[in-house]
């Protein structure tokens, strides 16, 4: 039988042996609920706090308190997109995103449109890159969020986040980037980005 060739590592991949070894105790020994006050719960809470610190360092967050863990990318996108939109309603109701976004991002924005929000969808080039100028032109005085992949989950394009993030200069628009596939190889240096991992 020929060796299997698997080309979808960006969406699902085997656990790195080092990560598996680091997590082994939490699969069988330290499995308490981190919200519980008993010893296994307190051990799990300490481990969760350490993981939060490690993630904060990875994305250059100002504080581990800025890191939220979710069950997956869809939940994270819903939390980030809807959370920023609703929290910013007093200042605006406009969202900017690209044609290459994950369905969970597009569907969150479509839902928000039923709630009175407006959006602009900018195109990508044949390689999946967003033109920062298209972002600049899409921004209005009512823009409260620019949302994009950091690394595209299907074609692997790594967006020029610094250029895109510089687009709303002076407008105060938060941005959301979804970088799980890129997190190990890329770092955020721009604090306004709300990463969903």
Description:
The chain is an alpha/beta fold and 197 residues long. The protein folds into two domains: 50 residues; 123 residues, Type I PLP-dependent aspartate aminotransferase-like (Major domain) (Aspartate Aminotransferase, domain 2, 3-Layer(aba) Sandwich), CATH 3.40.640.10. Helix content is 36%, strand content 12%. It contains six helices and five strands. A five-stranded parallel β-sheet has the order 2-1-3-4-5, sandwiched between helices. Strand 3, helix 6 and strand 4 form a beta-alpha-beta unit.
Assembly of the depicted chains? single chain
CATH level-four homologous superfamily name of the largest domain:
Type I PLP-dependent aspartate aminotransferase-like (Major domain)
Major sheet size, sense and barrel closure:
5 strands, parallel
Taken as a percent bin, the fraction of beta residues is: 5-15%
* Domain module tally: 2
Radius of gyration: 19 Å
CATH fold field value of the largest domain: Aspartate Aminotransferase, domain 2
Average pLDDT for all residues: 83
Query: What string gives the helices and strands in order?
Result: HHHEHEHEHEE
Low-confidence stretches: 176-197
Strand order of the largest sheet: 2-1-3-4-5
The residue fraction in helices comes out at 25-40%
Which word captures the global form? globular
Per DSSP E runs of 2 or more residues, the count of β-strands stands at 5
CATH top level assignment of the largest domain: Alpha Beta
In whole angstroms, how far apart are the ends? 37 Å
